Amino acid sequence: MILEYIIISLYSLSLLLVFMYALAQLNLLFNYLSSKRKVDTSPKFDLSKDEEVPYVTIQLPVYNELYVMERLLDNIAKIKYPRQKLEIQVLDDSTDESVETTASHIEKLQATGLDIQHIRRENRVGFKAGALKEGLKTAKGEFIAIFDADFLPKPCWLEKTVTYFKDSEIGVVQTRWGHINRDYSTLTKVQAFALDAHFSLEQVGRNSKGHFINFNGTAGIWRKECIIDAGNWEGDTLTEDLDLSYRAQLKQWKFKYLEDVITPAELPVVISAAKSQQFRWNKGGAENFQKMMARVITSKNINFKTKIHSLLHLLNSSMFTCIFLMGVLSIPMLYIKNKYEDLEVFFWVMSFFVSSTLIFFTCYWFMYKNSFGGGIKNFIKYIGAFFTFFSIAMGFSLHNTIAVLEGHLGKKSEFVRTPKFNIKSLKDSWKNNKYIKKKPSLNVIIEGLLVLYFAFGLYSAFIVGDQGGDFGLFPFHLMLFIGFGYVFFKSVFSKA
């Protein structure tokens, strides 16, 4: 019975933690809905007056971006802003032939009168954080806008963002990510679904009540003074953006989130690229929890509710560990439930999974409706989108759990960039992209075994007990089977 009690305890704890996270999401939904009734009265610079136009530096941290550099540079050159108040830094750590083509293109832009500099380092110390810190040493602007290589801000982007810095307490203005290739595949649709929830529900829900949010690494603009005051960029975690965001807010800098300013970007279209991005984000989240937990708890500058939301924010990625444990232990739980009738009271905790799923379903529906509209037709589409997202997210749970555990245990790893593809439409192909990882990792074998494991879970529903089976966990196991099956299949067969 000891083993059974251990399984029940771990399973129940995982369910309760996910349920607590779901309740936090529900609170963010209430915050989000209440924010829509407020009128923004923030003070703004009047850019029609020369004396109110601030000097801005745009930083473009890049590393081996052969396929998208020309698109990036041409797009940034279209930004509408007084040339005498604008500087562009291409922070190029590349080690391939893109260095020469980038340099050549920059020379052409310089000939048009654009103040654009090609900044190179001898090494990648600190990775992206190191490049941003190096550029800051010579940056002329009092405000620093940052874009990753796959982002395509509209010409009016600066005009819509820099104006909010008239409030001297604002340290960061962050914009919402858009997706130029949302409908390319099931994988891109799932990523867009998840990111839309983050950039609406979470960012607005936290920011509207003064809770901590994060600069998302790109498509935002910093006050240079804020970066310096918070301790500058540090490269000791894989999510330097989350790290600096928390250090800045702990020093009482305010963040401004603009949901209505959308900055289009390219989603990874092959699963190896999506996995590398997910690994970096989830490991970095765990690293920042370890780095920031004590500072948040002991801070005298923030209230109790903000501390709770901050800790749950930093633990976002750790939810994958709970989901993975729930999945693996759910099959032994099915057999325990049908073998020991005297333990039936313990299995009421299973209802927390249903409750959590309903909460997530409700929260994400409001985000989906905000983007695509309501009505029966869109609601039916949403049901399919939600369960596709939920299944594939669970299929990523092994991969992301490994990342989270490495982060919490302090195992260091290299900053692995996400390959860009220059994908705009369904006609574009990612085949033969030189940056794609050619061989799947050993973890893929385990993912394949988990497909078989959850197939056994589906079969078990028909044979357990003496009442003709138990189908209570059948939908859960079906989603796990589909999710791990999708991730395994794509990891093995979707290669260049």
Summarize the structure.
The protein has 496 residues and is an alpha/beta fold. The chain has 16 helices and seven strands.
Task: Describe this entry's structure for a reader.
This protein has 496 residues and is α/β, with parallel strands linked by helices. The protein has 2 domains: 2-32 and 318-493, no CATH class; 56-269, Alpha-Beta Complex (Spore Coat Polysaccharide Biosynthesis Protein SpsA, Chain A). It contains 16 helices and 7 strands. Strand 1 (56-62), helix 2 and strand 2 (86-92) form a beta-alpha-beta unit. Helix 1 crosses helix 6 (186-207). The model has no long low-confidence stretch (mean pLDDT 92).
Major beta sheet summary: 7 strands, mixed
Radius of gyration: 24 Å
How much of the residues is beta strand, in percent? 5-15%
CATH superfamily assignment of the largest domain? Spore Coat Polysaccharide Biosynthesis Protein SpsA, Chain A
Compute the number of strand runs. Answer: 7
The domain count comes to 2
Strand order of the largest sheet: 3-2-1-4-6-5-7
Distance between the termini: 50 Å
Q: Determine the structural class based on helices, strands and strand pairing.
A: alpha/beta
Which runs of at least 5 residues are low in confidence (pLDDT < 50)? none
In the CATH hierarchy, the architecture of the largest domain is Alpha-Beta Complex
Q: Spell the H/E element sequence.
A: HEHEHEHEHEHEHHEHHHHHHHH
Supply the CATH class of the largest domain: Alpha Beta
Arithmetic mean pLDDT: 92
CATH topology of the largest domain, by name, is Spore Coat Polysaccharide Biosynthesis Protein SpsA, Chain A
Shape: globular
Helix content: 40-55%
State the helix count.
16
